[in-house]
Specification:
With 195 residues, the protein is an alpha/beta fold. It contains seven helices and eleven strands.
Length: 195
């Protein structure tokens, strides 16, 4: 069984985490023979309050989390504190050394950039934070028009709802296109904005 971990922290943007959770947990539960499970973790394993007030209780802490095969770092205002938190940045760097595939949604990529994980790579983030992404690491190539950027062992996505598209892409990478289509139909994701 392989594990996808979604990081939670105070101030994470709800849809950044819950969108990928819906995609990936639907996949893992509906198709258990594919061999994946999805979990959530936070620094100390206690409940966290998201950006708009949702309180979520992660299953694991950093210390109790099983080894991860994929780590997803959501964005939100809470990432700003992580940019100056050397303990958090060190934890992120340790994950890079252990986790085969790291992904981010929205401003989660800012933390990856600050930790030095996006040096010389293409990446994206929320449109309102592209300048900060470039400032944090001038060597990266920002891709403002991409919903997500897959650079092998690092995948970054644009803001908020783009995390759903990125998660479906992960299903393609980790399983296949047909499975991703089954998941998309199962969650009835067919984006055609009414405006």
């Amino acid at each position: 069984m392989k594990t996808i971990g979604i990081l939670l922290f105070d101030g994470f943007e709800e849809l950044d985490a819950v969108g990928p959770w819906e995609v990936l947990s639907f996949w893992a539960r509906r198709f258990p023979d594919d061999g994946w499970r999805v979990t959530a973790l936070s620094r100390d394993g206690t409940p966290v309050r998201a950006a708009k007030g949702l309180v979520v209780h992660p299953e694991y802490s950093y210390e109790t989390s099983p080894p991860l095969d994929v780590l997803i770092y959501p964005g939100g205002r809470g990432t700003r504190a992580h940019l100056d938190d050397e303990g958090q940045l060190d934890w992120v760097r340790r994950q890079r050394a252990q986790v085969p595939l790291m992904a981010s949604v929205c401003t989660g990529s800012l933390v990856y950039a600050r930790a030095g994980l996006l040096a010389g790579r293409p990446a994206t983030t929320h449109w309102g934070s592209l300048d900060l992404l470039r400032e944090l690491d001038p060597t990266l190539t920002a891709r403002p028009d991409d919903r997500f950027v897959d650079d092998g062992d690092m995948v970054t996505s644009a803001g908020v709802s783009a995390g759903i598209d990125m998660a479906l892409h992960l299903v393609v990478r980790l399983q296949d296109v047909e499975r991703a289509r089954q998941v998309r139909r199962g969650i009835q994701y067919d984006p055609r904005p009414p405006i």
